[in-house]
Amino acid sequence: MAAPCSAADIPHSLQTERPRLSASRRVVIKIGSALLTNDGQGLDLLAIQGWVDQLVALKNQGVELILVTSGSVAEGMVRLGWSERPKSIHQLQAAAAVGQMGLVQAWESAFKQHGIHSAQILLTHDDLSNRKRYLNARSALQTLLDLGVVPIINENDTVVTDEIRFGDNDTLGALVANLLEADTLVLLTDQPGLFSADPRKDPHAELIQQGRAHDPALLAVAGDGGALGRGGMFTKVRAAGLAARSGARTVILGGRTELALRRLFADEPLGTLLLPDEEPITARKRWLAGHLQEKGTLVLDAGAVRALQKEGKSLLPVGVREVRGRFLRGELVVCTNEQGQPLAKGLVNYSAEEARLLAGQSSQQIEELLGYIEAPELIHRDNLVVI
Ligand SMILES: Nc1ncnc2c1ncn2[C@@H]1O[C@H](COP(=O)(O)OP(=O)(O)O)[C@@H](O)[C@H]1O
Ligand SMILES: N[C@@H](CCC(=O)OP(=O)(O)O)C(=O)O
User: Fold this and answer.
1) From the centroid of its chain, how far is CA 71?
2) Which ligand is closest to the CA of 124, given by its number?
3) Residue 35 C-alpha to ligand 1 middle, in angstroms?
4) Is pLDDT larger for residue 381 or for residue 363?
5) How does DSSP assign 210-268, residue by residue?
6) Which ligand has its closest atom nearest to the C-alpha of 160?
7) Pfam families recorded for this chain (predicted)?
8) Is the pLDDT of residue 90 over 80?
9) Is residue 154 lining ligand 2, measured as CB closer than 6 Å?
10) Average pLDDT over residues 210-223
């Protein structure tokens, strides 16, 4: 392990200039098992209602919220009367299936107190690594947000096998922040933040208030977790690095601190804030352009070029002159002008074969031409970056 770092090792500018979290518009909040189940004693319904009350206050200020909740295994263990986290995957799956029932019920009734709908989404790794399913997950979550529903996400523990597990919900939270291009990821845990050493083992450990998400020194001081969850601080710092790829900042925050969420988003410097190295917009563009291979090219007419470059619009089939290459729905394509100059990249809503049929046609004709309609755009502007 590297030398422990203290708050004093963090550059001064990073300690003083804390960006305003009150400017957040889309936030992913992940809550860990120990916190949710009161260290394994069963779901802490009072605490859950307290977080939901704070979240609803944020939502009422116009912030879009996505919740990632752990605790299915921990709650399943309580319901089944098991005192130790099982090792066998089948027992873990069984505990998760039992516990998930209580978990969603608890969240749903807490949001209902405020007349707000919530929705359960169980994701596997494949849902986020397979391009087509990635787009589907993104569209479904976006639709829920547009409807004012709060998505409640967990890993689909009962169907995943060891090799394909996210492994911990910190990673899942970061991938969801990437998927939805959230501006802030909050990892709510049982400690007030990241310390210079594990405070359970070192009483002199100091809270690190701010740092860079990719700083290896921070990863070196982050240790394992407790008996209930999986990740510990290591996966939280690693998750901050993943979230930073699409420009999100991460806060590791103590869920037992009074009104922690409310105070954090009122710009009180609570917890540990981990910042991306780049401006969010640059990071987001690099992420979209860099994490996928281009599978084809769409050649656009002058009207479509203007719509994308000047007006920030989606790409409609009517503006496409030619479709090159072979691609499936959800893959990355490059858009060029008629001179072959690349202008934008994006995730396409239709396969190459379908796009060839749609090129030059109005969106009203999609259903007639294909026999179904996925979306009126070939590339939605949320899935497009102008280069
Ligand atoms: N440097 C550190 N700073 C704070 N906590 C740490 C550190 N290293 C290890 N930990 C441990 O990580 C635990 C939180 O991780 P974990 O149990 O996985 O929580 P969660 O269920 O919220 O994901 C803390 O209780 C603490 O003992
Ligand atoms: N999907 C698992 C997540 C386990 C997990 O990552 O726990 P934690 O480290 O407490 O966030 C569950 O619900 O138990």
Assistant:
1) 18
2) 2
3) 11
4) 363
5) EEETT-HHHHHH-----SSSS-HHHHHHHHHHHHHHTT-EEEEEETTSTTHHHHHTTT-
6) 2
7) AA_kinase, PUA
8) yes
9) yes
10) 92
Closest residue to atom 10 of ligand 1, CA basis = 198
Q: Is 33 in the pocket of ligand 1 (CB under 6 A)?
A: yes
Q: Between 81 and 15, name the one with better pLDDT.
A: 81
Burial class of residue 236 (count of CB atoms within 10 Å of its CB; 0-12, 13-18, 19+): buried
Radius of gyration for the chain, computed over Cα atoms and rounded to the nearest angstrom: 22
Judge whether 189 is annotated as a binding position: yes
Provide the CB-side half-sphere exposure for 108 (13 A, CA).
Answer: 9
Catalogue all structural domains in the chain, each as residue range(s) with its CATH number. Answer: 20-285 (3.40.1160.10), 292-386 (2.30.130.10)
Task: Please work out whether the CB of residue 156 comes within 6 Å of at least one atom of ligand 2.
Answer: no
State pLDDT tens for residues 223-263. Answer: 876 655 556 899 999 999 999 988 899 999 999 999 999 99
CB 191 near ligand 2, within 6 Å: no
CA 291 – ligand 2 centroid, Å:
26
In single-letter form, the type of residue at position 92 comes to: L
Question: Measured between alpha carbons, how far is 251 from 240 in angstroms, rounded to an integer?
Answer: 8
